[in-house]
Design goal:
InterPro entries: P_starv_induced_PsiE-like
Main location: membrane
Strand order of the largest sheet: 1-2
Protein name: Phosphate-starvation-inducible PsiE family protein
Strand content: under 5%
Radius of gyration: 25 Å
Oligomer: single chain
Keywords: Cell membrane, Membrane, Transmembrane, Transmembrane helix
Pfam families: PsiE
Low-confidence stretches: 7-27
Shape: extended
Amino acid sequence: MDTKPPVRPSMPPPASSRPNANRNLREESHEVKVPPVPEDAMLKVLHAVIHFAVRILAVLMVLVILWGVADVGYVMYQRVVAAPFLMLTVSDILVIFGSFMAVLIAIEIFINITLYIKHDTLPIKMVIATALMAVARKVIMLDFKDLDPAYIMAIAAVIVALGLTYWLISYKPPQPVKQDER
């Protein structure tokens, strides 16, 4: 009996034979590609359910953003009409900044959600940037008089770790100069 060996699906060319433009695009995006939907019917259904849930999260995040904008307006109104009229203290300004930052963080999260919906990718660089913004909001709102030094050191360590991670993700080594380009 003469049988043919099974035909293997074609494999993508190795990374070394791909054009540099594609490799640079992939390296610069810093995104983790979500695996494709498996062929199993149950997993296809579960994957569709997850995508539907993410879309619901996007709608809910828009509601949170609108609610946050209304809250910023309400906080500003309360601070401006309180005695002394039309005067803001430093603590009032910090509370207003905190409200603004909370809305901006919600917008960043919404952008992360929409990128996931559009491209099935996890935008790692943007998630790190969102985390940095959230920690920055926390630092802006801190009252250093009432804090334990260990708590301040822990927040500093988180800021350094997130900053270093962001820098490492963003770092592009200098390109060597070719001999004929000099």
